[in-house]
Design a protein that fits this description.
The protein is mainly alpha-helical and about 200 residues long. Helix content is about 75%, strand content about 0%. The longest helix has 24 residues.
């Protein structure tokens, strides 16, 4: 239990330093100083700076995932689950300034064409969560029949693109409007169900 608490503290200190200085300029000495330990003590928990960076980012991504999952607890409607998933996943980044800064410096955390995705396992878990909601919606007759694994992957790709775009463009109102319109497009489509003749 003690090791877990120490790891959480190490990851938090690492994230704060990486968000301030970036991966290249951050040193293990910086992180150790924030923790009140020596660099050699830090080596008990990590192999090197790059490994600590990836572990800390993975930790932050899992925190993000857990918060979204927690928001879905007790919600039975697949339609509501889908909307909550979209909104909570987006809103979390607006609140987590440290992870936002890291993401801004390293958009490859969400690679658009993942040849090698350092966080592939975590990202796959997000796609599976989305796929589960889609399957439940189809079973309950709320969503139309579809190939859920493919659609979940497409929606997650749109989400990644949107997240990356959010940190390139600084106009918050534009971003929020595009987000609302994107969710509307995903849920309503572009065709009228009963178009006029």
């Amino acid at each position: 239990m003690r090791k877990k608490i120490e790891l959480n503290l190490i990851y938090q200190a690492a994230l704060e330093n990486f968000s301030r200085y970036g991966l290249r300029k951050t040193t293990l000495d910086d992180i150790a100083a924030d923790l009140g330990v020596t660099k050699s003590n830090l080596y008990r928990y990590t192999k090197n700076k790059e490994t600590l960076y990836h572990e800390a980012v993975a930790y932050a991504m899992r925190q993000w995932q857990e918060r979204v999952k927690k928001a879905l607890v007790g919600v039975d409607s697949p339609k509501e689950q889908f909307l909550i998933l979209c909104h909570k996943a987006f809103a979390y980044l607006a609140e987590d300034k440290i992870f936002c800064a890291i993401l801004k410096n390293d958009p490859d955390i969400f690679p658009m064409f993942p040849v090698q995705d350092e966080y592939g396992e975590i990202n796959r878990e997000s796609v599976v969560l989305l796929e589960t909601i889609l399957k439940n919606g189809i079973e309950q007759g709320v969503f139309r029949p579809m190939e859920t694994s493919h659609i979940a992957a497409v929606i997650f790709s749109i989400y990644k693109m949107f997240i990356i775009q959010t940190y390139i463009r600084t106009d918050d109102q534009f971003v929020e409007q595009v987000f609302i319109q994107t969710v509307d497009l995903l849920t309503q489509g572009i065709f009228l169900s009963n178009p006029p003749s």
